[in-house]
Structure formats: structure tokens, C-alpha cells
Request: fold
Amino acid sequence: MTHQIKSLAEYKSAYKKSVDNPEEFWAEQAETFTWKEKWSSVLNWNFDEPNIKWFEGAKLNITENCLDRHIEDRGDQTAILWEPNEIDGEVKKYTYKELLSEVCRCANGLKALGIGKGDRVVFYMPMVPELAIGVLACARIGAVHSVVFAGFSAQALADRINDATAKAVICSDFNKRGVKNIPVKQVVDDALDKGCPSIDFVLVHKNTGDQIKIDSKIDKWWHEECDEQSEVCEPELMDAEDMLFILYTSGSTGKPKGVVHTCGGYMVYSCYTFKNVFQYEDGDIYWCTADIGWITGHSYIVYGPLLAGATTVMFEGVPTFPDAGRFWQICEKHKVNQFYTAPTAIRALMAKGDDIPAKYDLSSIKMLGSVGEPINEEAWHWYDKHIGKGKAPIIDTWWQTETGGIMITPLPGITDTKPTYASYPMPGIQTLLMDADGNEVRGNNVEGLLCVKFPWPSILRTTYGDHERCKQTYFSTFDGMYFTGDGARRDEEGRIRVIGRVDDVINVSGHRMGTAEVENAINEHHNVIESAVVGYPHDIKGQGIYAYVIVDEEGVSKENLSNEIKAVVTKEIGPIAKPDKIQVVHGLPKTRSGKIMRRILRKIASGDTSGLGDTSTLLNPDIVDSIKAGAI
Ligand code: WT7
Reply:
């Protein structure tokens, strides 16, 4: 089993070894897994192309490590504990033995339908156990999964299916979320109507049993294809550097890109970080509230916990149904020991009052995790006082889809914590701050651009189908370094605080949105001539979306415009990308080379119209006053 750091001295010596002798350090971690063949070299890399290979020559199957390996010692232990949307609904528990059988049945079903090693399979499913089962079934047979968050629109789903040239979609009929019953399969039908020529079939999981349209030529029922299959499926032999999954994420330009993670390194790092960051002990009940549609769910609901032989809770519903006590009710009911959520959820629940968590027994909680965006002081203290009762360390974990696992974080009970600070790099993570001119910012009490100068096992390998884009986005800003896109501060004692994105990416409720992507969606509205989107501080969401639009006023009703723009964005991307504020303007501040000066727009959106800096280089300096005057 992966090594667990238990003291500050051990953290320090592990960190030192990981820098002085990274290959030996990671080989020792990797030795604790089941490999079918050992590696010929631990690490080969350059950040120029980039070309990064961990455990080259090794052969494995990650599901053998998630499942088969645990059968002897913990076959009857609960692997997945599923809590349904309805508070009085039936809890489902899958032991490691049962999970292995279900994964094999599904894997055999997929094989019989023609899915094989290297084929891409897109998931569009709510948080039901079958999502985890399906993902693991793909990994079992060497198919590459790409989970699309089920809140994305049909257009966004079609774009991802086509970018991945997926052979199949796996979905549910409907999805219960709070009081809503969402027609999931209908969205898949709509996506396919837009043209997805690579799709052979859609595998439909009967979730609610509500009526759906079935096209016998392409739709297959999960229960018909998988339930009668054998519960034995030999794991496909994978190279350490074979693709495990693609996960789409937004960037500052263009369409979302498919971040690629591979089998060996991702396995080693997701398990290592899970065991250490959550200090998981046998018998603990661990709950991460993320959705499997995001990287947090991949690494810390499915892979990390199962690799470590943990009991992982999966929740179908929302934090506010039937009321704002639901999270705490679940913690009490299942005696949750490690709880991991996002600042936006903490802020939303904090706003409902202190008396709500006070009704529940939260004494089982040993540590509290935070992820996805900077956690503000107020939320940090509320989480500490009202949920952890001052006894559970707050573990603010900084990482990204591209990093595959947690990068900067305190370790509970081992390193200290400080409000709003992600604090210390994990062993193996060589972070540094750079200035805009490409010089390292040394010393303490400084700010800079957050970079990493040495590879770790779960660093992204490429962006699917476009390696050049991977190079440009992450490895070209600074020579020989991975650039995160974040700005950070280092305090007097060397702790890191991640401040936020320095590129044109907005973090809305912990979800990454590219401004260009939202602008493209807004521009689909027939009256919109041009738009510019920026983020602004939002009490609950962290950042809200502020859109400045230039419209062709003919035939536009002002009242409808805002709603229509929101509807267009919902259709093009999904409700999470809907602008919170829309201001009609007559022009946008542009430089002489035609570039929008977002700095000015960001300032106005934040409600700060004083000292907008030098506007003399603008092509149209007069426009700034009129935008200021019309600000919402
Ligand atoms: C971006 C990555 C990693 C899982 C969820 C988000 C921001 C993430 C923190 C944190 C401050 C954070 C960064 C990062 N971020 N965690 N603890 N403190 N900022 O994954 O969608 O890939 O977004 O989220 O800006 O670059 P993602």
C-alpha cells in the first residue's frame, strides 16, 4: 500500500528525497501497486515538445489495482456507498467484490457491442453508481473514457463527442436533482441530431424509468446488454503511457480542450495524494461532493479512493434538497470522517444560517477539504467553526484538471494551516513563482505566476488531437516550465496562496469558463454584433460572469434581450455559463491593434471605476465614460 506520511519530519524528508532523487522516490511508491510487467525506465521527459513518460515499458490495468487487488483483504468492505437524491430513498452499497462483478459485466457488455482498446466512450450521466461502474468498465477493457458533466448542453456534448471521435455514448434516461427530473437521454438525442458520425450506439441506463424515445437502430439498454454478462472479465494489458481518459476543460482561447491522462502515472499519483492528503485510515468513510464530470470526481471519488481500498460516498442530489442541511445530514447518517467540498457550496450553505449545521452530529469529521477556487477568509472560518467545530483541520487543496491530482495543500495534523493558504507543495511538486519577464521571483512575501519546473506522475501528456495546443498553452510561456495560468503569493514563512487565474478564464462556482467561449455563444444571438466577457467578484459563486454587448438595436426589445442572450448561452454551453449581468454598450475599449482592453472592463465590472489607469493608448478613450455610466 502507498506510503503514508505521518509526521512533519516525514513530510520534510519525503519532499527532500522527491527533489534530490525523484526517480527513486516515485519508483518506491509505484512498487506498492500490481504491475504485470515492470518499467524499463522510471522517467523520461522534456518540457519543450513536451514529451513526458513515466514508468515506460511497464504493463498494468488500473482496475486490477482498484478492485481485484483488494478482494482478498477487503472483498466484503463497502467500496461505493451511494446516497440518493431523496432523503428517504434507498441507500445502495457495493462491496469491493460486488463492484468488481458489476464492472466486469459492464465491460463484457461493452466488448460485445464492439468497444475495444483505444476506443473513446463518452459518458453523459448523473451521479449514479453506474457512472463509476461504466468508467471502470472502460478502463478494464482499455477503452478511453471521457465524462461530460451532465449540465452541459446538447451542443457542448456534440462538440466533445466529435472532438474525441467517440464510438459510443453512455447515458441515463432521466436524472433526479432536487425537485427536478432532468431528461438526460433527450439531450443525447439532440446532440446526435447535430451530427455525430463516429457514434455507433448509445447505451442507456434505466435510472428513473420515465418514458423515453428509443431508436432501435442505435439505442441499447444497459440492463439488456450487461446484466446477463459474465462477472469475470480479464483486465486488458495496458502500457503505462496508454491513454486512460480524456477530460474536457476550458481555456482562454477557442473551444474546450481534451486533457489526456495516462494509466501508470495517474494511478500512482492519485492514490499517493489520496492517502496522504486525506490521511485515510482503514474503516474511514470518505465523502467528496464533486461530480464525476469534473477532475475532482475522477481522482477523488473514483480512482484515488478505490486504489487505496477506501469506502467512497457518492451523492446523487444537491446540497439544498430537501433543505440546506442535506450535506450535514448525510455526514451524520454515514458518520463521514473526511469531507471534501468547494468554497461555493460552503458560502451558499453559510448564507442559510448557523443553526442548520448545529442540528446535526458532525463529531465523526476528522478533516475538511476545500477545492476548486480560492476560499475566502469568512468561508474558511465558518467551515472551521460550524462544521469542524475547531477540531478538524481545513485542507485547502490547489490543483487543476491538467495536474491530475492535488499539488499544493496542507496535510491534516502534519503541516500547519492558515486561512486562504493552500500552503505547501506535495512531495514531488517543485513549484516556483515567475515574473512577467521570465525571471524567478525569489524570497518570501512576494507574488508571481505559479509554475512547476519538474514533472510529476499525473501531469497531462497532451491535449487530445492537438499536441501543439498543449505546448502553446502550458509549456511556452516560460522556458522549460509548466505554467499553471494562476497567480500566487508566498507569505513570510513560504506558504503559497493561490490568488486566481491571470488568463482569460473565469472561475464560476469552481467551474472553469473561458471568456472567448462565452463570447462566441453570446455572439450567436442574431442582434449581437460584438461582446466582451469578464469575471467580477460574486458573494456565492466566487466569480460571476459580466457581459458587455454591442447590439444592432433594430427590432430588439430591451426587456427580452437579456433573457434571450441567457437562453442562447444555455443552448450553446449550458446554464453554468449564463452571464449574471449583461450591459448593452456602444463600443468596447480597444487598443490601436484592435485588442479589447479587458483590464478596464474587469475594473468597471467589479464596481471600481476609480483610477482606470492609462487609457490614452485606446483607439476610443471616450467609450470608457459611457461604459462607466451604464455599469450595472
Ligand atoms: C483552477 C483549476 C482541481 C479541481 C477543481 C478545479 C482554481 C482550484 C484552488 C484552490 C485557489 C484554486 C485555479 C486552478 N483552483 N483549486 N484550492 N485555491 N484556486 O479544476 O476546473 O481544472 O480548475 O481552479 O485557478 O487553475 P479546474
